[in-house]
Amino acid sequence: MTAFTRTWNAAYEAQPADTENISLGAGRIRDLKTDIQERLEVDHFHAGDAQDGEHKKLTLGAPIATPANVANKGFLYGKDVGGKIELHWLDEDGNEIALTAAGSINAFPATTSILFYQSAAPAGWTKDTTTLNKHILRVVSSTAWVTGSQGSNDFDATLGVSPTAGGVTLTAAQSGLPDHEHTYNKVVTNTGSGAIGDSGFAANQPISAPTTGGSAANAASSHIHTLDVNYIDVIRATKD
Fold first, then answer.
1. Disulfide check for 216: which of 76, 131, 144, 177 has CB 3.0–4.6 Å away?
2. How many domains does the chain have?
3. Per-residue pLDDT reduced to its tens digit, 90-99
4. Quick check: 217 and 175 in contact, CB under 8 A?
């Protein structure tokens, strides 16, 4: 609080009394000049130079009640909010806007939710510590917007530090290939007229029945993948 030489109150304004000696008049006039100058200098230059009357700063006291709105006029004032003075504006329609809150510019209305690239919420905001953990962002049109968490797998499980898919053993039904064999025929040419070895096959007759064999069921298939993508961490905070 600024200290002044004399207190400006009703008693001060009643001076000089009509019965006071006229010889005291010069002193009273000088005192009045001093008292006015002291108060002007709280926010104004008043040193007898080119800056006389200009503002050094604007001091707004609090608390005060919200002023009544007036047509074609606006009001800028300080108002006590939670024990702290905050800057307010009132327009001619009576709309009161808090311009500052908790030491920062109050550019967003209460309940506004924003992402921040920092670990703690700024002053006047509350960090979400209970929902939307380890999520990615999906941009949609306004008509497709849905509140709350969507999907079932968090970021780390899907795209995190080292997510992998281990080996999987496929059944015959999963592979789409049932048990089967491949039969082939081979013609053996005999330039003579007798049997071939102990087989008893005649010349130039096919040998049939040998197969490649094999089974499609229960074959293990292993697919290992790593999606260690670059990412940054952000937090979600809501305006108080």
1. 177
2. 4
3. 999 999 999 9
4. yes
Residue 29 DSSP class: H
90: buried, middle or exposed (CB in 10 Å: 19+, 13-18, 0-12)?
A: buried
Is residue 159 within a helix (H) or strand (E), and if so which, with residue range?
Answer: helix 155-159
pLDDT of residue 109: 81
Q: Which two tokens stand for residue 57?
A: 């700063």
How much is the average pLDDT of 136-157? 81
pLDDT of res. 143: 75
> Is residue 172 domain-resident?
no
Look at residues 225, 233, 238 and name the one whose alpha carbon lies nearest to residue 137.
Answer: 233
Q: How many CB atoms lie within 10 A of CB 89?
A: 13
Domain of 205 in residue numbering reads as 177-218
Structure tokens at 192: 């003579």
Residues 86 and 193 in one domain: no
DSSP 8-class letter at 156: H
Same domain? 151 vs 240? yes
H-only helix segments in 14-148: 25-40
